Amino acid sequence: MPLNLSANLGNADNFYADLLAAHDGLSKAQSDALNARLILILANHIGDNDTLREALQAAATTGAIDAG
Amino acid sequence: MNKIFEVPLYPYARSEDQDAAAPVRRKVVIIGAGPVGLAAAIDLAQQGIEAVILDDNDKVSFGSRAICFAKRPLEILDRLGCGQPMVDKGVQWNLGKVFFGDRKVYDFNLLPEEGHKRPAFINLQQYYFEEYLVQRVRDLQAEGAPIEIRGKSKVEAIGTHPDHVALEVETPEGSYTLEADWLIAADGAGSPTRRMLGLDFVGRVFEDNFLIADVVMDAEFPTERWFWFDPPFNKGQSALLHKQPDGVWRIDLQLGWDIDKEEEKKPENVIPRLKAMLGDEVQFELEWVSIYTFQCRRMEKFRHGRVLFAGDSAHQVSPFGARGANSGVQDTDNLCWKLKLVIDGVADEDLLDSYDYERVVGADENILNSSRSTDFITPKSDISRIFRDAVLDLSEHHAFARPLVNSGRLSLPCTYDYSPLNSTDTLPEAPARARPGSPCPDADLGTGSGYLLDQLGDRFTILALNCVAAPLSEAGLDLDVISIAAPPGSDLAARYLGLAESAVYLIRPDQHVAARWDGYSETALRAALRRAIGKEQ
């Protein structure tokens, strides 16, 4: 299944609020750990290695990292 | 008490070669009487090829060292006539536990597939492994086989020539020159042969130290593999507890990079660490302590003219996943039949290049797997540790995360998928696990008929399932037919037929599949055999 990079979230604002709320009151280390668990849970849900590779590629080639 | 590793098993004895007027030429000389060198010599000698092993020592390995022997090497040892004592003595295990911090996160069962003669793994100290191989050498000698171990015989210089190799051998009674048609260098990771020939050995060094201890104790720990990530008794590091025969337990403790090795090895420093791990009340005795660092690297080529490298001299891996001695024995399994065919004049020297091709594939697979285990066990960056710990936290509650936990992967034999010796797979509807290049899966033949692998090996064989095939002679080789009925539901049908109704397999002397068809074709078999011995491109 190709990676879906068009808008797909049922309610974008609600998801974003939930994401921030999950990190409320956490230290940097706790937040890093939560993010890592979340990535692993979502990756397992997607399952398909090709789709995941596309997602990694999309993440790696956007943002400030790209310039460096 | 004399432990087996303290007794000289092949003491120095003067050889007639030392008194010869001119250097004596032997067929195959093997440097190193470790698991790999011994297996190679036995394989050659039991097929009538002269093999002389030279070793600078006269005893089996000191301390347990390699302790896990996987199913495929055990099957190879069966072919070499010494699998049974290993399995009888070894400890079998299927259960493992994984701990993270101060808690157990999950346990697992290897659940080995039924219908195999040998278990997935046994634990056995390397000194027993070597002792049984030496015993097999003695039995072969008693039968008149051309095999010899020369202890306290250190190779000091090597001269390579187009048609032979010349060796300067140092003994307690002075040195002598010995010549060999072929030389197998099985002299370990620090291979003096490699150094003397000025050959490369490149790869990745892992900056870590591990303390390994053999501990004798009468404790009620079950026969399981226990692995700790970041335990309270070894903060920030890892630990492994594994049972060996004779009430000996193997303990591995990760120490980190910046340590004083000599200091850490002292009993006054080791014992408190072990007490913290085992509990104050457990009585134990230290049998052997060592500290190792490790590397993942290999030679660019395993064949250099008439010198063939096998085992750790050719490739070195981290110890996670038991791929050192196991892959070395698989090297000899691949090499010896080819060497025999070349020595017998059946095949050209070029056949030996396929040893290089096939075992480099095996080495790369092992290096990849053990590097991945190492990266999981000893995270090299903050983010790598964050993900590692996230996997372990999740594994306690969710099954999906358990396959991500990597404390060493089961050592499985590799399939030589693109080997030049393979013929095209004309039976893709049969299981992929038996495609050309694969090691033959074992199968229970049912009602007291034993196991398939006991009928294969040492020669090319035609395996005919649910059809008729005829023996044939080609390129100087005589091929027998093993004809077996594979009824639906049998191991044979599941592992070799799949959706096919019948099949003919051409099996190599190392029990790997060379070719397969849905029925007998004399022309196709002859072509596949020629290809499998390097006579047809």
UniProtKB/TrEMBL annotation, chain A:
Quote the InterPro entries the UniProt record gives. Answer: DUF2783
The organism's superkingdom is given as Bacteria
Pfam families named among the record's database cross-references: DUF2783 (PF10932)
What this protein is called in its record is DUF2783 domain-containing protein
Q: Give the species this sequence originates from.
A: Thalassovita autumnalis
UniProtKB/TrEMBL annotation, chain B:
Q: Does the keyword Oxidoreductase apply?
A: yes
- Enumerate the InterPro entries for this protein: FAD-bd (IPR002938), FAD/NAD-bd_sf (IPR036188), RIFMO-like (IPR050641)
Could you tell me which SUPFAM superfamilies the record lists for this protein?
FAD/NAD(P)-binding domain (SSF51905)
Q: Name one Pfam family in it.
A: Rng_hyd_C
Q: Which intervals hold domain FAD-binding?
A: 27-361
**Signal sequence region:** none
Listed A to Z, the keywords are: FAD, Flavoprotein, Oxidoreductase
Write one Gene Ontology MF term.
3-(3-hydroxyphenyl)propionate hydroxylase activity
Question: Could you confirm whether the keyword Flavoprotein appears in this record?
Answer: yes
Stated name of the protein: 3-(3-hydroxy-phenyl)propionate/3-hydroxycinnamic acid hydroxylase
Q: Which gene encodes it?
A: mhpA
